[in-house]
Amino acid sequence: MNIGDKVRLLHGREEGIVRKVSSGGRIEVEIEDGFIIPAMKSEVVIIAEAEKSYFGENANVAKEPEVALPISAPKDQGLYLAFLPINDQSLSLYLINDTHQAYLVHASEVHGSNQRTLFAGTLSSGESRKFDDRLMKEMDEWPSFLLRFIPIQTNLEKAILPFERLLKMKATQFFKHLSKAPRLGKNVYLFAMEQTTKALDIRSLNTELQEISPKPAPIKITKPARSIDLHIEQLHPAPDTLSNSEKMRIQLETFETNLNQAIASGMDEITFIHGLGNGILKKEIHKRLSQIQNIKYFQDTQKDQWGYGATLVRIS
């Protein structure tokens, strides 16, 4: 078992990628929602071969033949984003227009509130256009891709609405999209640009507006305690029945709920008791705190009582 293998936990439903292999048979697995779960090698099983090439495993290792999987796409749409494997490390990105309609296309990568244009131009009927290259091993760090399509209609005819698609690639889903690309005629990872924009039905919209009930009264903010214990035994009546990811989800939801209430109610500080353990919960809490503007600072606190198993949050 190597770093980059995709595995499933035998005692739960979680799937993820091996991120660390330690002595004594211990590993760390990153599941789909970004959490790191420690486990023993005997507690997991490798579940896929296609993902191994994504993480750079030796290309000489024999692989099972790739089977083209159907993609969920309307047959009359015919606009695609395709990832063409160049070798076991690199992919070329293509836009494919398999319709009888020409489009103005704008493709960009999205980094939070910032964007960078990758392609802007005309994509004629039956045309495929390469516009970028990516490394498969960096897929976890790829930004989202935003694609906008505006039909070019040179004749006076019924309007075709422009539309856009925003895609964030995840390895757990990416490899399920292997298919033969139209126009390119090669096996690629193919994503259909389904048109989701619809014309407004004014009559139905007016009916819906008339049926809208009065807005509910504002929700009263409950001021939380100054110290919140995030030990799972304090948050769930039967913690032994939970998987590691379920425990983490409950702890982080409790953390975020109480932090939001503390900010909304005007508290100047709040302490979260997360314990020492393997440090995963503390690391995730500190990561989220570092991304919130309302936080003046946060620090480990009360070593004498919790041995730095708690974090003090100062709210601005």
What does this structure look like?
This protein is α+β, with helices and mostly antiparallel strands. It has three domains: 6-47; 79-198, Sandwich (Immunoglobulin-like), CATH 2.60.40; 227-315, 2-Layer Sandwich (Ribosomal Protein S8, Chain: A, domain 1). 18% of the residues lie in helices and 34% in strands. A five-stranded antiparallel beta sheet has the order 4-3-2-1-5, with no helix packed on it.
CATH top-level class of the largest domain: Mainly Beta
Instruction: Provide the number of structural domains.
Output: 3
Mean pLDDT: 80
Give, in order, the helices and strands: EEEEEHEEEEEEEHEEHEHHEHEHE
Architecture per CATH nomenclature, i.e. the level-2 architecture of the largest domain: Sandwich
Q: What is the general shape?
A: globular
Helix content: 10-25%
User: Percent of residues in beta strands?
Assistant: 25-35%
**Unreliable spans:** 57-76, 196-200
The total strand number stands at: 18
Structural class, by secondary structure, is: alpha+beta
> Rg, please?
25 Å
Q: In terms of quaternary structure, what is this?
A: single chain
Summed up:
This protein is an alpha+beta fold and 316 residues long. The protein contains 7 helices and 18 strands.
